[in-house]
Each structure stands twice: as structure tokens, then as C-alpha cells.
Amino acid sequence: MAEFDSISQIGFSYIEQLKSLQEKKNLNEATTKQELKQEDFFSLLTKQLAQQDPFKPVSNDQMIAQMASFATVDGIGRMNSQFEKLNVSMTSNQALQASSLVGRNVLVESMVGTKQDGEGMVAMVQLPQALDNLFVRIEDKAGKLVRTLEIGSKPAGASRIEWDGKDENGTPLPAGKYRVRASGLFNGESKEFNVLTYANVNSVLLGKGSVLLNLAGFESPIRLSDVLEVSKS
User: Whole-prediction pTM value?
Assistant: First the structure.
């Protein structure tokens, strides 16, 4: 008989634990859903006035401070809501403007560009200072050198580099990805410089708070803000 009492007590204790856990869960859900609004504040304020000590009433300064605090919190909440709406609106406008880029070439910071069949490639090189002789190496996707271009002297800043899409023997190379490397003597030492290439915009995506572009030859989209230039052609 004592064994059955022990089992009964264990079962009762288990049920009580389940009830306690459920009550805590309900309380947490209710707390999460609670949100003080303006009507709640005025209700609390009315009850405070009705239940205050008539011999020690709340001073005007305290009342004004409470109302000012609530007004500040309420104003910040409204302002955050307006900023969120503004951000969504701006992102939508950017996406609409970016849709006009589909089919056009944009300049991005990447040494790898995509060559179309029967065409060449255009790149930009950022030079920290004027150079007497700039060299450009064109490599295929396997890293093999297919063409060396002796550009000559270039001023500081962005310089346009054009490759006709042919190898050293003048044979047109197939379409695909090619890497552009630029180098020259900088302060007496050989140095590689930053290269930018053009890519065609395939489509536009609307990401989390930003506009993304799918570019031909790129495995992942880039942000619209990373576009440095839009080609006129």
C-alpha cells in the first residue's frame, strides 16, 4: 500500500510541476504582449490622483515630470516608427531606380572581368601617383598569362585600360572570365595597383534594408552602394 502511495505522490508532484511550468509560460507570453499606450498612462495617472494622500498630494513638478517623461518615450517610439517607414520607402525607391540598370555595365572593385565572345574588355586602374611605364597582365581563369600590355606613362588617379580580347599572337580568345593585373615602379619598387572592372547587371534584388545587383560572372550579388560607375553604353 505504501508503494501505491509513493507512486501517487510522484504522479501528483509531476502534475504540479507541469502546471507550474504552464503558468510561467502563460505569464511570459502575457508579459511579452503587454504594451503601455497613452490610454494606459492616463488611466494610471487618474488612479494615482484618486488614491494619493490628500495631506501629501503629488506636487505640480512631479506631475509635469511624469507627463514629460511619457511624452518623451511616446515621441521616441513614434519617431522610430517613422524612421522605419522612411527606410522602407527609400529602399523601395532605390530598387525602382536600380531596375533601370538591368542590361547595363557597372564598374565594381574586382580584378576579374567577363569577356564576351568576339569582344574585348575594359578596366580601370587606380594609380597613387604618375607612372612612367604601366604594365598590365591578362590571365585566364586558370591563372595562365595570355597577354601583356605595355601601357606607358599614366597620370595619378583612375586610368582606363582597354584590351582587345586577343592573345600575344593576335588570336581572339574565347569568352569567359579573365583577371587583370596592373603593376609598375612605385618609389623605386615594383608594385601592383588596384584594378576595377565592368560587369553587366542581370537583375535587381531587394535585400534587408539594401538593394542588391546580380552581375554576370559574379557568384553572389553586390550592394548597389558598391557600384562606382555606370557605363553610358
Answer: 0.56
